[in-house]
Amino acid sequence: MLSSALEILHKYYGYSDFRKDQGKVIESILKGKDTLAVMPTGGGKSICYQIPAVLFKGVTVVISPLISLMKDQVDNIKDLGIGAAYINSSISHQDILHICESLIAGNIKMLYVAPERLESSEFCQIIKSIEVSQIAVDEAHCVSQWGHDFRTSYTYIWKFIESFSKRPVVTAFTATATKEVREDIVNQIKLNKPEVFISGFDRENLKIGCLKIGNRLGYMLKYIKTNEEQSGIVYAATRKEVDSIYERLKENNIAVARYHAGLSDKERKNNQEDFVYDRVNVIVATNAFGMGIDKSNVRYVIHYNMPKNIESYYQEIGRAGRDGEKSDCILMFAPQDVITQKYLIETSIQSPERRLNEYKKLQQMIDFVHYNGCLRKYILNYFGEQVDYEECGNCSNCVSEGEYVDKTIDCQKVLSCIYRMKREFGVNMIVDVLRGSSQRKVIQYGFDKLSTHGIMKNYSKEELSNFINTLIAHGYISLKEGEYPTVILNPRSIKVLKGEEKVTLKEIVKAKKITLNNDLFEILRVLRREIAGEESIPPYLIFPDTTLKELSSRCPINFEQMMDVSGVGQLKLKKYGERFLEAIKNYMDESKIKPQWIFKNELKNDKNVKEGKNLKLKTHEITAEMIKEHKDLEQIAKDRQITVSTVLSHITKYAEEKGVLDLNINFGGIFTDEEENQILKVTKKIGISKLKPIKEKLSEDISYDKIKAVILKDYILLDKNA
Ligand code: ADP
Ligand code: MG
Ligand code: ZN
């Protein structure tokens, strides 16, 4: 049964394997069992009901909450070569009749409808005259009051299902993991003895980061500028904040759109489209944005404010990296966020019971921000998933980027100033006193006579206010709520003042570029946008970023090879193959790259690859491929935007995996003969197992890179080739 499903996956979608749990879910549905699948955003839920839809005899009705998205979803399916249609309020009566004819003629495998449609008797009449094999409820958490997107019309779905004389298979999909929501789905939709699949919630490709810095805007601007060519979402807590960030980004010449409930429907729709169609790369939004955004190439999600709870946070960052490529999630915390979120709870939730529930969830979010362990583990545990590691290696607590610096003395200066000022003031006033301002208010209170007046002149106004805010974010000073928040000392401040606790802060890491694209990737991306424009569909629907990446690293030269690339199905090959192949060929000619193709089937028989399971080229394999193209080490480092040291590690890894090597590496420019001899002298004595002792025995100017390179050349490669 599953083999026919795999065939569809390959032929239409162009993917070679199911992701985790997809196979099991599909198998259950194909057996005719009601099925509930809980998978993270980007986990690949659509394929779970779409493949059965193709294999089943009749039509699958897909209930999906967002009218605005239906067109994209249906375009996507049609673009794969599968018959699909949608009916919603934007479709004319004439067109509905037309769709009905196609339904009856059996040309449509999937019909997307909004839940409201099920209440129309006319619609129900039509549906009953055709064979319906599956009813798939997407975003099924909308049925639950506990979910975040409750929709009344979802609670009528069961009536619709019961009205069939022959009950279709009913399937439901959601990314919301809590037990309450899950139980609500089963009960409200009245699933019949359902098979329930709960996938692991980890999204390995998302780098989870939490920043507590005073200067959020500055950091964000730099980050966005550095990653200007990438798509990203910035979430802020309020409309006002969205508007102001939007203006600031525009002032900085960033192509940006905004989204919040204060805009007209039309504006919202246009702005969302601009983002989905890659006409702007950044969208600033409140949490109203994103439900069902299927755009797969969102490379970063920035939370300018702390969100209200872990569920929302995880759902929002889940919109990054649906294509499986690595993506950044940056949460920027400031204590004012807590005040904002409390205010929002107070003003928007009536029921005391639910309010209490929201406060509890908010507290867990705050705990997350201040958590010192692995952030990924915290989230997964929150969703009830046990993890067997202590460190994920891909969150800001596990990867210590940036150096810790001792800021105890500066912190003490701030604290003692607050202490001496006796009354409560806001950050600005403290900044003024510490910088020695002789403003009227400062004089009036006699602060110019304090010993702390002017002791931090070496900071600019902005720097100092950022520093104080950073201290607040780390809990060295407290913020007191009120119309104008004031700062106050807390038990921790006292400890620091007494010298019992040190203040070490991480230097803020420079904003980094996300993906390591090569030139060809850029060329293909431009081509993709061109074609998308001609067809009026979003670029990511032509090919996802992963496919472009694989095309640009493997360089297929004919249809057969191109079909071997993940994400290239039959119809897409026919429609777009020629143009992509031409672009690739031109690039190969210009850069004198010789064609070299290994089919995945051949690779599959390769023991190493089999064990690694992954058929995509891994990052170190791409480096090795470039070596085979005779690029030199420094060029590769430059092209891939990695350090020479990383290039060396990649090759070492590759050599270790593959055993033998046909790599002809040009070490010219990395070390001189003289340096090589010096290094060899040491390594012959003390071995190569540890780099540090080797380095210590050599002169200062011989870097780790040089040592690594010599070891690679004279030990590893020699060994492996022997
Ligand atoms: P969600 O679970 O959030 O609804 P989607 O169904 O939108 O996720 O899928 C997210 C992305 O993953 C899509 O771009 C889809 O094409 C891709 N995808 C799904 N299944 C696979 C697979 N087996 N191999 C590769 N990519 C896949
Ligand atoms: Mg989905
Ligand atoms: Zn971690």
Automatic annotation (TrEMBL):
Q: Which Pfam families match?
A: DEAD, Helicase_C, HRDC, HTH_40, RecQ_Zn_bind, RQC
Q: Does the keyword RNA-binding apply?
A: no
Which EC number(s) does UniProt give? Answer: 5.6.2.4
All copies of domain Helicase ATP-binding, residue ranges: 26-195
Q: What class of enzyme is it?
A: isomerase
Q: What residues does the HRDC domain cover?
A: 514-594
The processes (GO biological process) annotated in the record are:
DNA recombination; DNA repair; DNA replication; SOS response
Name-wise, this protein is DNA helicase RecQ
| Organism name | Clostridium ljungdahlii (strain ATCC 55383 / DSM 13528 / PETC)
